[in-house]
Every structure is written in C-alpha cells, then in structure tokens.
# Entry
Amino acid sequence: MIEIDNISYSYEDSGRAALSGVTLSIKKGEFLAVVGHNGSGKSTLAKHLNALLLPTEGTVRVAGMDTKDEANTLPIRQKVGMVFQNPDNQLVTTVVEEDVAFGPENLGVPGAEIRTRVDAALAAVGMEEYAARAPHMLSGGQKQRIAIAGMLAMEPEVLVLDEATAMLDPRGRREILAIVSKLHREKGITVVMITQYMEEATVADRVAVMADGTLLLTGTPREVFMQTELLRAHRLDVPAMTELKERLNAHGASLPDDILTVEDMADAICRSLLKN
Amino acid sequence: MPIVVEKLNHAYMEGSTLAHDALKDVTLTIGDGEFLGLIGHTGSGKSTFVQHLNGLLQPTSGSVTVDGFDMADKKQRVQGRRLVGMVFQYPEYQLFEETVAKDVAFGVKNMGVPEAEAMARADEAMALVGLAPERFRDKSPFELSGGEKRRAALAGIIVMRPKYLVLDEPMAGLDPLGRRDILDTIDHLRATLGCAVVMVSHSMDDMADRAERVAVLSAGTLLRVGSTAEIFGDAKFLLENGLDVPQVSRLALALRARGVALPETIYAMDEMELALCNLLGKGAEI
# Structure
C-alpha cells in the first residue's frame, strides 16, 4: 500500500537529519504502530505518508504513486487521511456534520452522496447523535472522533493517527483506540498509529520502533517488546508487565519471555503455581 | 501553615441557562511539604479546583486561605498568590523571551527584584531543574527540545520560590523517559526546597509511584481523599468510578479473580514483586 524506500529528511533550519535511510513497507489492511522517543522522527515519518512532507532523499510511493509528483498530491491525500494531536486545531466549522462534510465537499462529491457519507462516517465513530451539535462543546475524545469521521467521509484507504491520543484523558484514549480497532477490523482500513504509549502499541499487528531518525526494528508487539534492553537504550519504556516478568525471572522464576499484558501475566503465574 | 479549602463551590455562568456547578462543597487541606495527587475525569473539576489555589478563580461560596491569607480579599490575595506557583498544561507554549535566562527571570523581575539578583536566581532555578546555567543561559528557548522547554518553564515558576507548587498534567506529551525525568525533577525540588506539590495527572502509574496522598474528584465533588495506599489499594472503587488503575492493581484483580491469594491492597511494582516471589516460593532469593 505504502512503500517507503530509503528516505532521508532534514528540516530547513536544522543541520541534523530528522530521518535518515528509513525503509518500510506498509501492507494493505495492516495495523501498524510506530513508537519512538520525542524527536525520534516518528511524526516526521507520518507526514511523509500523505505528501505533507517530501523526502530530501529516497522515495515514498502510495499505491504506486510517487509523493514527489505534484499531480499525485490530491489523489494521495484522498487515499491517506491524517488525524493530528490537538483536537482543537482540526475542526473548522460550527456544526459537527458540516465539519465532517468539509472534506468531501472540497473533493466535489455530489450533495446527496455527501449526506450518505456523513451519516455513515458519524455512525462509524458512534457520534450520530451529535450531528447538529457545536464541536467546541464536545470533549477532547469526541472531537478526535469527529476528526476521524471527517477523514472517513473522504473514504480513505489508510488512516494515519499522529499521536492523536496524546492530549486525551484515559477515557478519551480508550474511545479512540476502540474506534480505530473497529474500523480496522470491520472495514479493513489500513491504520498507522504513531504513539507515545507502549500499551497502545500492543494492540497493533506490527510495531515499528524509531530512534534518532532511523528505523530501529519492526516486528509483532511480542517480538518487539521482548527486546527490553534495546528499547531502554533508546529512551523507551517497556510495558509494566514485561518489566515485572524480568524482575521475577531475575529472582529465579521461569516465566515465558513474551508476556505483554495483564492477562498474559495472570495466566503465566497461575500455570507456574500449578507446577509447583 | 497549610492551604485550607472550605466548602468550596464554584458555578460557571451563574444565572444563565448554561449555569454549571463545577465544584460542590469541596473541603480539603494541603499541608506543608506534602505531595498531593489529584485525579478524576476530564470535567471532574480538577482544573477549576487548582485555579482557586492561587486566586485565579474566586469561589461562588466557601473559602480558600493560603497560610492564613484569604484569597477572596484583594490585598491578602497578592500575598497568598506569591506562595503558590502554578505550572499549567504545556507550559512551554508560554516561553517568549530571547534567552532562557531572561525567560526564567521574567516573573521575579516583575515582582520588583533587581536585575542582578533576578539573573542570579534564574541561574539557581535552572540548575535546580537540571538545565546547566552555563550551557543554557544564553540559548533561545526555541532551540530547546520538548523536555528542556518544559524544564525552562518550570524554572520560571521555581525562581519565585513558591511554598506550594501546583502542576497541571506536567508530563503530558512527553515520552516515557521524559516523563520520568520531570517526575524526578519534581521530587528533587520538593526535597531541596521543601515545597509542597499538588499534581493533577491522568497517569495512575506515575501517581501511585510518587504521591503521598491522593484526592479523587468526580463531577465536582471530592469523592475520596486518603493515602496513596488507601486510594490505589481499592482498585475496585476506582474502576467503578470509571477511573484507570495502575497496571499492577489490574494484575492483582486478575489474579484474585483466578483464585490466587494476594493481599487486597497491592498497587506498587515492588510490593507485587515481593508478593509474587513469596507465592512462587522464591522468597529466599530476595
């Protein structure tokens, strides 16, 4: 779906490369989480996925289209929708449904179809009841759901969330994670989720770890979070249960290496107790 | 002398159809030098509450006194406010001066402290938050990394030597190590300056790790206040009120649900490590 081939990128007024030599292939229908420390280049990478930024070196192709070719910019942005961090910067109108209609209107979609798309998009994020409300009266999580609906109304194939949960409270984060997982599962949308929270990354099919502008490793959440030393060396945390497993094993317990979630840990401890 | 909040009520847009009671009869005392955590949903009244601690908001009814200064009285408020340093969410957005040192010194200069003394105090504050003055003094605040900017903003408050440091989501948007750095800095400030810390955060793991006492707000009401062990030891109560609990508390619940005999109140990683080692028969190796 998206082919990132050996790209590098430097911001104009900084000498340092924000990305250097990143190669990554994002398959159609997958759920990819991208994690990394502040300044690791993960947001810069996200902005390359819909031609908001163009690589200084290397190429990015979305469904075969080179992002560097200006003729491709619009079709690429229709395929790849992006949701950003701050819920207050993304809503432009005073009525929720107008906000969701904003994208398709700009694409020149006929009126009747816009209606259908807006209704479907609001239903997909569970916000139908709020169609006639004012966006600024909504909670942060609800605003982000409207921002996602606005993207869905453009019928994208890929949804990129650039730290879309960073400014939300735990309830708002759970709402967004549940909606995104559902869209991925039920509509087959390709999801790229940039996140600071290791626990969020555990629900993805695949995790990519960025460090200092390079791609450090990719793999399933279990494969990636087993690499505790490597992650810590690059300013990243490991999930709490992974840390507890390490500590217990250091005391001589023999818990399996791929413990990630609370459920994994509870099961492993029960099995261990039965053996004793 | 403490901050005493008594029967505090705050209504937004009182008298209009949009009237909304943001705080209802909140009574709470914040003691000298303590670390109080404040938890609750968005909209529970946490931010409204902390804005009363330095008189940014005035009670609809009830009272707030800071070391005896009544924050409803204009003259006393000026004195009370000097004791309370407020660090808002994303404080780095408020940096604006040419150099880090000037930015840090801005508040004290406004208080009428002479230039030379203000700059000396800025150096001291920068050192306290872990920004080496000789390296950072003359830099533009906009050249700093996200974590460094936040430290600079924190130094701009510390420089006023507050007795109470109030922080609203100080770790928001930082990566895991950045979060830990800020928490360590807060602990360090408390240890060296002896100031009390009031911290609002959604991060239960961090709260469980650092706070001494925790207050739970819900829909404008103070639901519960107690030691960190009392609050987080009762994971069921927090979950029933729609709040998150530390991962370790979740594990304790999951294990008890599977019939494993664990003490009710475990919430910290160290305690869990010890309890599980004992259970698994490895206690001797600790």
About this structure: The two ends of chain A are 50 Å apart (CA to CA). Residues 97 and 131 of chain A are 5 Å apart (CA to CA). The first helix of chain A runs from residue 42 to 48.
